[in-house]
Amino acid sequence: MDRRKSLKTLLGGAVGTALFTQVGCKEAGTDPVPASAGTELETKGYGLRTAWEAEREERINNSRFFSDFELETIGVLADIIVPAGEDHAKATDTGVVEFIEFMAKDQPDVYQTRLRGGLAWLNAETSQRYGGKAFIEATPEEQLAIVDDIAYELPESEAESNPLRTGIDFFDRLRFLVVTGFFTSRDGVEYLGYMGNQPNVWDGVPQDVLDAHGLQYDPELLPKYVDQERRTITAEWDEQGNLIT
Amino acid sequence: MQIKKNDKEYDVVIVGSGAGGGMSARILAENGLNVAIIEAGPYFDPQNKEQKTQLRWPWESPRRGASTTRPFGDYNAAFGGWELPNEPYSTVGDTRFEWFRSRMLGGRTNHWGRISLRFGPDDFHKKDFDGLGANWPITYEEIKPYYDRVDKMIGVTGTNEGLPNDPDGFFLPPPKPRLSELMYTKAARKNGVPVYPSRMSMLTKKLNDDRGVCFYCAQCSRSCAVYADFSAGSCLIFPAVKAGKGQVDILVNCMAREVITDDTGTATAISYVSKDDRREYEAKGKVIVLAASACETARLLMNSRMKGQTEGLGNSSGTLGRYLHDSTGAGAAAFIPSLMDRKRYNEDGMGGLHVYSPWWGDNKKLDFPRGYHIEMGGTMGMPMYGFGGGHKAIQKILNYKVGGYGNPLLKEMKSVYGAGFYISGRGESVALYDNYCEIDPNSVDEWGIPTLRFHYKWTDHERLQAKHMQETFRSILTDMGGEILTPEYTYEQDYGMLAPGAIIHEVGTARMGDDPKESVTNKYGRLHDVPNVYINDAATFSSQADKNPTWTIMALAMRNSEHIVSELKKMNI
Fold it and tell me: Which of B309, B441, B540, B563 has its CA 20 to 30 A from that of B527?
């Protein structure tokens, strides 16, 4: 069956219409809602916060942790970790710096001293290597030379004694924030290829995927799975519990 | 209708609006009774656009969904967690106990896993098999009609398999398994572990005109805006209000303090503090139903005083607060190299697993009593805070250089997306007298209500069960072609078993029984000591099964509520 026609049939009933209206889709019975459609434009905020959550968030938003200098440094590092690619934007264009500033205030014990201390370490290291420069003043080649030294895990034998350990720990933590921030941005989700978060009708693994993995649905169970053509018909059972609709 | 204070006497005052309180309200109101529901949190309706988090994207949260203020992340529909501001609890000695509370209409049903398993015939008399714990004063046959009605009223997926201790029911058709679930099925069966379609309270098919049909966004933990999943508000309380047979007054932001009794030993009211004005009020009722959750209900009774009783209302047996037990929980995760570079498609599916494994073992041949069921999953799910956090472990497995940056790193992460898989067990622990909660004499919450302190220790019954889980899961994961990420835990580490309370299936604090010296309520949840007080939550469970408690809470609340109706008609209350 034609996939579009199938979805139109399946979602076109009364329930389908209500459903599409609620998620702000253009009209019922067209294609599945495109991945870019969501609820974000419908209401401000991101769903109900409790009073203490809302107060907490207001305090966070009214405070500032990193200085401009620190944020600029984070931005340069973030774009080294996630530079622009053929099919995605660079980190600073995906809200990652704002996210990191928020997280430093949201989880201060986890992030504040480690990130701030790490940035200071980085500037000290840059200064020693390159005649008093801060990291953001170094040339891109100089910046990458330092990053290459701190971007990889040490062998266990060196883990305690290596003088770069502070920098390696810092980079690891920052890399986590940058990567998680990127992949949870609109651009990152698209790059990753996540195709969900939209009303749809699950009807099993695509056949070519089953074939590629050498798997198949158990023919005995197939009749027991939901018949998506009949999903909007009200369920009724016989006395033994057999579904009859 | 939401109100703050009133002087009228209700037929029934219900404390709590979750599975037990919601079902009580619906049954009582359908029988024409006027009820008040006292709920400690705010009104919540997932259909309300200001409130709903469903279908929101990770970037709409400034913390990208991190669990800073909610243990299961920013979009989770639980207003609460294991810690609540200004509502402490304490533990004694080396007790590890974590108490999850959700303050909102519908309580923890708004975010729960929706795994909806009936208890089986054996589960009501486990003591007959192993001599441990206590039998229930009721049998499966007595509860079966109520389970049947819950199935039809709420909706649950599944298949009738004729299993001896995992009964058939009135099931909605289950969805087809996801790719990794097919791999699990194959590997589990190779290990002698059975696999069946999952039993989840989502509507894969239309049930009635009030609720929508599942649209497969996998976000039941956010509570469904079209009411396609079971939440107590959507499926019990709103229909009770809509039916209009008996009046249902919902008193939100009201924290129950104690059950008020008169000189004759009859309960007359619930006293509560309004969180909005911090003043004290009473809701008068001919009958009081407690459904505040096992520990909160026990706390409420312990904080209630009646003439001649110093150890709390309904506690002449001395068992109130005792026999507290939670499900066991342990798990293992793996990276599955054959799932690298997956073709992209939307595999969100229902919110949770499409297949599950009921307990299959024979305890006579094992070194522990009681069993567990298996939950599992692994999908190309929505990325949230934490995404990429485990990548170094995967790099080690793949013999990549550990660390890195730039587009090569991003390509690696893209390549392993959706290649993780976890298996976890949820098992039955043995109820023990020495695992209990009591009032902490040194502490009150911000409402001036004395708080709980917990005494709880796992025993080898649970530890050896967790060991069996680990061995089973590692074997299945290996047979799936997986590289195991979870460390091998030792006896001293309880084989990776989580702390009691972590699974949020706590039950047993006011257990039912025929003998008033050994139990708090009779088989209808009615206090032995105070005939017009009923307990309609999991406090009355004589034992937990290797099943999730919600379906049984609702079946019992339905049965108890109809008993109340009948007793009121007979003028026995």
Answer: B441
